Amino acid sequence: MIGALIFVVCAVLMLAGVPIGVAMMLAGALGIGAADLGLLSIPNNFYAGIAKYPLLALPMFVLVGSIFDRSGVALRLVNFALAIVGRGPGMLALVAIAVAMFLGGISGSGPANAAAVGGVMLAAMARSGYPPAYSASVIGAAAATDILIPPSIAFIVYSVMVPGASVPALFAAGMIPGVLAGLALIVPAVWLARRHGFGAQDKHVKRPPFWRALREATWGLFAPVLILGGMRMGWFTPTEAAVVAVAYGLFVGMVIYRTIRMRDLAEILIEAAEISGIIMIIVALASIFAYAISTLGIVDPLARTILDSGVGSLGALTLVIAVLLVIGMVLDGVSIFLIFVPLLLPLIRGYGWDPVWFGVLMTYMVAIGQFTPPLAVNLMVSCRMAGVTIEQTIPWVMWFVFAMLAVLVALVAVPDLSLWLPRVLNF
Asked: For 47-190, where are the E strands, in sequence order?
């Protein structure tokens, strides 16, 4: 009875427009009070929810995203990519996806990635005859690879909630799926552009000089090598890697490219603090909800019902994927993790699913939701920058959704696509 009350109150509050974190906290607090679990457990779990070492990396990687967004790295990466692939139908779309994937190895925020790539690519694509709705769709979809290619804020949140899924293992597991997702997006992007003649007038535009473009992009190209290579070599932990990335980004932006000035630092720090604060508050509030449902033993009977239903591992996984894909259209990624991970943990244990593999699958589904209407955070950013509505992007963006779904099927069918690299790296 109390369990049903918690979920009903949470759902009603969210439908009424109450912020998700607040709705979860109020529903959890109501359950704690009704079950007489002790009201002091509310502040205790609020603190315990964020008093975890891996979460220290979260605000740092958010800050890295803000720094590299303003450092001019994206523009130099675009010039380098153009120097490699040249111009022509669909090439600017290919470059946008490639640069978004590369920036995913620096920052863990999809919306920040969409803003950085959109700021450089949207105007260039408009001049080359790409429709704004198409361009916004490409950039919104490409930015979704950000939470798969390490470092990833989503993986950090998941690792805190799931025992047995370490941050290094998740980072390594996300690399191949992230690259496959990017390659899958390139196929419809280039095909649609060539089918409709987008960028055809660019055929005779000269490529940027290769060696000059490489020289200017070197500092940006080295960033993921420093972050991921340093973790692999054991020089620093993921949390320390985030701090190193901040220092490196400031050095590149203030000393090398000189695109960040001292007076810009306050604005960058405030922006990163606001984004980080929102995420951390949601995590802390959701911890009260998670404590209530776990202490009251609400999830175990539900999980046991599914385990005993005879649907099997594949049937249960298909059901979970279908639910999360739908939920991903209306909820943001952090909220999905905080609501559903506690509910799904018994199924992960019951069916013997590898927690790292399942973390990649769950993050991948969140990535699809980031550019699937109606609530698509990456698409919202790119649409706002392109001056179009989300409705205008639907004929284009659905091609990218189907491409990502094809890779999702492969990840389910071949778990080693996610688990091979962590195994090789001894994570």
From this structure: none
For residues 218 and 256, the answer to whether their CB atoms sit within 8 Å is no
pLDDT at 302: 63
Integer-rounded Cα Rg, in Å, for the chain is 22
Q: Give the integer Cα–Cα distance in Å for 367 and 229.
A: 25
* Closest by CA position to 61, among listed 106, 2, 1, 114: 106
134-149: burial string, b at 16+ Cβ within 10 Å, e else = bbbbbbbbbbbbbbbb
Tokens matching residue 375 = 């609530």
Distance CA 386, CA 122 (A): 7
Measured at the CA of 280, the angle between CA 275 and CA 284, to 5 degrees, comes to 155
The pTM of the full predicted model, rounded to 2 decimals, is 0.82
Roughly how many angstroms between the first and final C-alpha of the chain, as a whole number? 42
Query: CA separation (Å) from 159 to 32, 34, 154, 347?
Result: 26, 31, 9, 17
Tokens representing residue 306 in the block: 């599914």
Tell me the C-alpha distance between 360 and 348, whole Å. Answer: 13
Question: What residues contact 7, with CB distance under 8 A and at least 6 apart?
Answer: 27
Two tokens, residue 125: 């694509």
- Cβ-count burial 21-43 (b if 16+ within 10 Å, e if not): bebbbbbbbbbbeeeeeeeebbe
- H or E element: which one contains 82? helix 73-85
User: Which residues, other chains included, contact 50 with Cβ-Cβ below 8 Å and sequence gap of 6+?
Assistant: 280, 283, 284, 287
356 vs 12, more confident: 356
Q: In 55-109, which ranges are continuous DSSP H helix?
A: 57-71, 73-85, 91-103
Cα 294 to Cα 298: distance, rounded to the nearest angstrom: 6
DSSP, collapsed to helix, strand or coil, labels residue 38 as coil
| 336-391 residue pLDDT tens | 887 788 888 888 888 889 999 999 999 999 889 888 877 677 787 788 878 888 88
Q: Pick from 394, 309, 283: which is nearest to 52 by CA?
A: 283
**What Å distances lie between residue 41 and 51, 97, 105, 284, 289, CA to CA?**
15, 46, 38, 13, 11
Q: Comparing C-alpha atoms, which of 337, 342, 323, 358 is closest to residue 177?
A: 358
Which residue shows structure tokens 């597991």? 173
Of 288, 224, 279, the closest CA to residue 33 belongs to: 288
